[in-house]
Amino acid sequence: xxxxxxxxxxxxxxxxxxxxxxxxxxxxxxxxxxxxxxxxxxxxxxxxxxxxxxxxxxxxxxxxxxxxxxxxxxxxxxxxxxxxxxxxxxxxxxxxxxxxxxxxxxxxxxxxxxxxxxxxxxxxxxxxxxxxxxxxxxxxxxxxxxxxxxxxxxxxxxxxxxxxxxxxxxxxxxxxxxxxxxxxxxxxxxxxxxxxxxxxxxxxx
Length: 205
Hints:
With about 200 residues, this protein is an alpha/beta fold. It has helices at about 1-55, 80-90, 110-130, 155-165; strands spanning about 60-65, 70-75, 95-100, 100-105, 135-140, 145-150, 175. The strands form 2 sheets. Strands 1, 2, 3 and 4 form a 4-stranded mixed sheet that branches. Strands 5-6-7 form a 3-stranded mixed sheet.
């Protein structure tokens, strides 16, 4: 009887070990995800504070996702655009910077309201698609140009997300900075840097 008990215990050891390792791995993965979220929030606050202190950056918006800082919006001079990127690189927890700031005059309240409406429509289309299961998707719209950031499960999922943004009314252009777990450490290059304009030209420019 004693020998039988020992054999049974030895037989279950690999299963128990696998369960323990799996639990530890899952907890560690969750902890890393929480850590990245905290780092991104901290970087966004820090970067916004530094830009406001600099002055001339009222039209600049900041979004940090997975260490990538997206700078969008507008400034009055090319020097301000360069200063914004320099400040972004100096912010803690920022490992990559995408500078999409335009040098132009403010287009007023309506432009901002229209951009917010577009972002909301894009977000609705994406999350209504049951085939898109990623939740780390950030949508930024400036002057009817939609910028996509975050991590998708696969390149195919990225293509679905980009397609939803393209088909949204009033979107002129889509620029994707989304990555997959396999490509997240590669150099950030827009998926469609020469994407043709969609819809009618903006007459207010």
